[in-house]
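Thread: glutamic acid complex, take 2
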Amino acid sequence: MNQVSARLAALSPSETLVMSQKSSELAAQGFDVINLSVGEPDFNTPTYIKEAAKKAIDNNFSFYSPVPGYLPLRNAIVNKLKTENNLEYKADQIVCSNGAKQSVCNVLMSIIGKGDEVIVPAPYWVSYVEMVKLAEGTNVIVNAGIEQDFKITPAQLEAAITPKTKALILCSPSNPTGSVYTKEELKGLADVLAKYPGVIIISDEIYEHINYGGRHESIAQFSEIKDRVVIVNGVSKAYAMTGWRLGWIAAPQWIASACNKLQGQYTSGPCSIAQKAAEAAYLGDLTAVNEMQEAFERRRDLTVSLAKEIPGFNVQVPQGAFYIFPECSFYLGKTTPQGATIKTAADLAMYLLEKGHVACVGGDAFGAPNCIRMSYATSDEKLIEAFARIKKALAELK
Ligand code: PMP
Ligand code: GLU
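Output below.
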């Protein structure tokens, strides 16, 4: 009775969404909660994109779209890849989905079977390992600590590859760490991968435009592996369009066809209006995107300086995305004023929410149990207030 499948029973809920939900619940009870848990831009979608969506409604874009998305949108993405990334793709190598989250899941479901190994560098975005489980694959976690700026080395990658390795999931700029692989570092990984032709590289580049170090580098630029790279991207972060649900892949033809087939049975093409909005986003210039990135960079600087003032936090300076990921093991094992022990970073996040009314996410869910994730996609005032509360709450731990 009421028994979910073994597949569902083994699945963990998304911790980022759980903490965000808890924060909303406390706020609904009247508490003044500052939410640094969920990763989404706090900006409104740029006006020219909203106008395109309104026009799409008036022009009756209300019918099912082709499963991989309208051709003009896929052409706009092909053009974006050419002009922004110097990468050549054809429109039938692009598959648009309901957010990059579905894109990653489509790819894993399409290529991973029982027992296939997927290399996931940790810290990782919460959903990767759960999606691998859904696909009945085996996660092979490669740990990269703060001392190596949370980035794996070519030697670590090579040591993790076995005859069963089917894929590697790379995320740069990274959620949750904000680390960004340089071109040279990507080349080092590509040189290893070139030796193992059976390994598919899933390159999650959703934070491409939130990058403080200059030009975005994609691992797809290395021709010796390009025919095995699946780029995942979308409009959520760059264009402040998280709720529109529009992500995409640029993939080898056979993987694009597989995702197309899967999506055709599962969800069909993504929302027609969101597609027209995304098309306008990609056809427009990068003025709005660059303005948001500048705001994020300023907030990054503010957040890093605030976090560095917290005793016991070991803070690395993120080069992209909008998260900081301080190492907080100093506080593990300490006792709250109520007498509870903080055993894990998740406990610490819960304590900060209950005591300081600041929502963060414990690193446990990201494969980094000594760290805590804070999103700085919020106003300066809220950031300053949040860190004052965090400092006060942490000072009460014994
Ligand atoms: N990949 C990473 C690393 C993310 O942080 C997110 C954010 N949710 C996604 C993919 C999914 O983005 P989308 O909103 O397009 O589904
Ligand atoms: N990717 C964002 C985050 O990590 C949104 C939440 C989610 O989809 O998990 O917070």
